[in-house]
Each structure stands twice: as structure tokens, then as C-alpha cells.
Amino acid sequence: MHNSQSKSALLVMDMQNSVVSRFVGNEKALLPFQQAIEAARSYGIPVIYVRVAFRAGYPEISSRNKMFGGIASRAGTSAVPETMMHIHESLQPRPEEPIVTKLRVSAFAGSDLEVILRSLQIDTLILSGIATSGVVLSTLREAADKDFALTVLSDACIDADPEVHRVLTEKVFPHQAEVVSVETWVASLSS
């Protein structure tokens, strides 16, 4: 999991107010995310936040895109309020921690994430976020294809469907990533 020769980064994905408000019933669900962020910071592991956002008028959204196509028609030409794009207050980035804006499900889609990772010489990604079946799955697949070593923090991933979360973390993700709890990951950092 933690190789002293590797250079890791923690990705905190889609933890913006608009997403957290739809998926998280209480603040306790965010504790694993907070613990992962604190551990990464204390061990000098870069924390990179990823959010999805669009320009006013949604020129990036195709009507053919089943997941995002309805956003523009529901919102008209007005942009989503800026506060809904902010990272949830309990997981606030520090000024030096990048916030990457993506345009699709994967953290790499339409973003400068790969440039940042290359600049920091990152070869290992620790994934957390909402939703397990969305950003975590898409980012894991793309990152694996880009030859990153991967760890998924199973309790720092949330999905609307607990069974989908279970199947992904127990049966799908292990083919391309280490899947561990935040506690196990944090313990591995000190060994």
C-alpha cells in the first residue's frame, strides 16, 4: 500500500455542497473523509480536491449525455449558485491544496488533474468521494489505464445504493486497486 519509493496523493472527489447535500444524511458520514485528509496532511501526502462545475449557459454539456444532459434544460441559462460548487465546510481545502474542476464523471475528464499529478511526480492515487458508482469508479478505471497505483478508501466513498457500493468495493475495485478502510490506510502510513 504505502511504498516509500512511491509518491501518493489523496483525491477528495465531488465533495462539494451540491453533491454532499444529496448523498449525506448526517455529518458523521463525513468523518472518514476528515480522518483521511488529516492523515494525508500529517504525512506530507498532497490532498487534491476534485469538483464538477460548468460555465453559465452550460456550453460543455451535450444533450446526448444521459447523466449531465438534463442539467442545462432544468437550470436554463443560469449557472448553479457558486456556494453549491464550494467544497463542504467540514472538508475545507487549505490555500495550497488544488481544487480541480472536471466536466464529466471521471476526475480526469476535462480537467488539468493529470498535469498536476505529473508536476508533483505522483504515481499512486488514494481515492475517496461521492459516488462510489460515479466519480470513484470512473476515476479508478481511467487512472488504472494510465498506470497509477491505486488505493480506494472504502469508508470514504459513499453511494446512494449500498449494494452497488458493496459490489464495487468487494468485487470490482480489488482487480485494479487496494481497497481498505481509512483506519487501515492510516495505520499503513506509519509502518
From TrEMBL:
Protein name from the UniProt record: Isochorismatase
Domain Isochorismatase-like, first and last residues per copy: 8-183
Family: Belongs to the isochorismatase family.
Highest taxon of source: Bacteria
UniProt keywords, alphabetically: Hydrolase
InterPro entries: Isochorismatase-like_dom (IPR000868), Isochorismatase-like_hydrls (IPR050272), Isochorismatase-like_sf (IPR036380)
Residue ranges crossing the lipid bilayer per the database entry: none
GO molecular function: hydrolase activity
The species this protein was found in: Paenibacillus pectinilyticus
Keyword Cell membrane: no
